[in-house]
Design a protein that fits this description.
By secondary structure, the chain is an alpha+beta fold. 47% of the residues lie in helices and 21% in strands. The longest helix is centred in the last third of the chain and has 17 residues, at 72-88.
Length: 101
Amino acid sequence: MAAAENTVIQPKKLGLKPPGMYNVLLLNDDFTPMEFVVVVLQRFFSKDREQATRIMLKVHREGQAVCGIYPKDVAETKVEQVVAFSRHNQHPLRCVMEESK
């Protein structure tokens, strides 16, 4: 039994990777008011007015902008919330997600 007392059990390496992260993006359109986009950024992405305005202008000028980077399930929820809120307010604002690099 003395030999068993000196045995050290090494933990197995499972090779688990951290979950993939996803960019949530807003896409520009010609109909959604800029102020509505600012509200969406404040409400669903916890941006202050200045950050929200900066992101909204990037969407307007460049066609899209990243609003946040989240694990897959959170990103999917954000996209669903933004799309539902936009449709409820009769705006065609598009929100999508893509795997972060």
